[in-house]
Amino acid sequence: MPARAAYPTAEPFLPPPEDEAGRRDLDTLRAAAAGCRGCPLYESGTGTVFGVGPAEARLMMVGEQPGDQEDLAGLPFVGPAGQLLDRALAEAGIDRSRVYVTNAVKHFKWEPRGKRRLHRKPGIREVRACAPWLRQELAAVRPRVVVPMGATAAQALLGPQFRVTEQRGEVMPFGDGGAEVMATLHPSALLRERDPARREERYATFVADLRRVAPLVG
Ligand code: URA
């Protein structure tokens, strides 16, 4: 029987730990992630899109992967989904400048469609390969609340059984440091919704979820 191919992982690209708890600071992590070749996606995008936000943020929001505009800008959630996220955060009374925003996968996975680069959903292997970066961001920021948006981020943090459709909006314990997690919808899913009434309804659900965590991070 042929040997099973090793799963790709970002683990060898992590910088050495900087304290006895095995943490690294965000700038060190960001610099190291820029050179990550832990999975084949490093070849597809312009560069690594690492998280941004204050190191002492009480809220960490996690998306799926950078989109076309994020890949070009090198920053998460700056395109249409990011604009919707900004609007929803403002309506929920959360100041985005105080939020750490990142993605489960740090490279843009896409396929050509004419002149456009069309988003392709990252696979489980890519999510697992990139997980060391997300774990390190969590360890460095130590947020009070983590909000995964959409199934990819929720499953990266809560396991493959987690169902956003059934469990979104539930505030649950996360890790052993007293943090909590609440999964919600992904803003791109709202943008894809064609029916305007349904889109408004889903947007209202998204804002209501964010309002639920606002008092915990204010
Ligand atoms: N969608 C995501 O999941 N992340 C981004 O950064 C942008 C769009």
Would you mind describing this structure in some detail?
There is one protein chain. The chain has helices spanning 26-33, 68-73, 80-91, 124-141, 151-158, 164-167, 187-192, 196-217; strands spanning 59-63, 99-103, 110-113, 116-119, 145-148, 172-174, 179-181. The protein is globular, with a radius of gyration of 17 Å. The mean pLDDT is 96. The protein has a single domain, classed as Uracil-DNA glycosylase-like domain (Uracil-DNA Glycosylase, subunit E, 3-Layer(aba) Sandwich), CATH 3.40.470. The relative contact order is 0.17. Helices cover 39% and strands 13% of the residues. The chain has 8 helices and 7 strands. It binds uracil.
Compile the SSE list and pairings.
Elements (H helix, E strand, L loop, with lengths): L25 H8 L25 E5 L4 H6 L6 H12 L7 E5 L6 E4 L2 E4 L4 H18 L3 E4 L2 H8 L5 H4 L4 E3 L4 E3 L5 H6 L3 H22 L1
The structure holds uracil.
Kindly report the average pLDDT value: 96
Main β-sheet description: 5 strands, mixed
Could you list the spans in which at least 5 consecutive residues all have pLDDT below 50? none
Look up the CATH topology.
Uracil-DNA Glycosylase, subunit E
The helix/strand series, from N terminus to C terminus, equals: HEHHEEEHEHHEEHH
Radius of gyration: 17 Å
- Secondary structure tally, helices: 8
CATH architecture descriptor name: 3-Layer(aba) Sandwich
How many structural domains does the protein architecture include? 1
Number of DSSP E strands: 7
Please state roughly what percent of the residues sit in beta strands, choosing from under 5%, 5-15%, 15-25%, 25-35%, 35-45% or over 45%: 5-15%
